[in-house]
Amino acid sequence: MNCTICKSKINETFLRKIIGTYVKDDKGKKHAVCQNCQAKLSIGEIKEKL
Fold it and tell me: Which residues contact 45 (CB under 8 A, 6 or more apart)?
C-alpha cells in the first residue's frame, strides 16, 4: 500500500495493519497516509492535499 500524499510505500505490522492512518475526504472515501506525512502536516493540510 502507498501513501496518498507522498506515494511512498507504507509498512505493515505482522497483523497486516498499516503503520500510519486512514483519513476520510469530504466524500467519505478513505485514503492511507504514512507516518512521515502525519508528522509534517496538520490534519487540515492533509485534507487539502487529498
Answer: none
Q: Which of 46, 6, 10 is nearest to 26 (CA)?
A: 46
Per-residue model confidence as pLDDT tens digits over 6-29: 999 999 999 999 999 999 998 999
pTM: 0.81
DSSP 1-50: -B-TTT-PBPPB-TTS-BSEEEEE-TTS-EEEEEHHHHHHS-HHHHHHH-
C-alpha 20/C-alpha 27 separation (Å) is 21
Contact call for residues 47 and 38 (beta carbons, < 8 A): no
Cell 505493515 belongs to: 12
